[in-house]
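Troubleshooting log. The previous structure file for this entry was overwritten by mistake, so regenerating from the original sequence record. Sequence copied from the archived sheet and checked twice against the printout by T.R.
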Amino acid sequence: MLGRYGVDQLNIFLLIAAVALNLVALILSRFGAVCAVIGMLVNLVSYGVLFWYLYRFLSRNIEKRILENRRYLARKSQITDRQNRYYRCPNCKQTVRVPRGRGKICIKCPKCSEKFIRKS
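Regenerated output below.
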């Protein structure tokens, strides 16, 4: 395992997702023929997720795996952030964070100084 990437938060999520999908496929296969076909497809997806987990786990390209994990953590923090809203600047596509519950506000992009109005 020397020089391999190992486990991070994205890999833990992938492993949990693969196990959950496999359980769903197992449950679906117990019902009728149509559900059994859907269960096989879900099972194939779970094997794909598990393959992705193993690929990341055994990868030697550590820099790329670190960047993938950072993107995952950034997306996860945006989803779980209940105090702020995120908008994209229409001019430069920079992500801008504003507090929730302020009504209609004028947002100024810190990168290009474009002003746009959105509801927070």
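The chain has two domains: 9-80, 84-119. Archived copy saved in two places this time.
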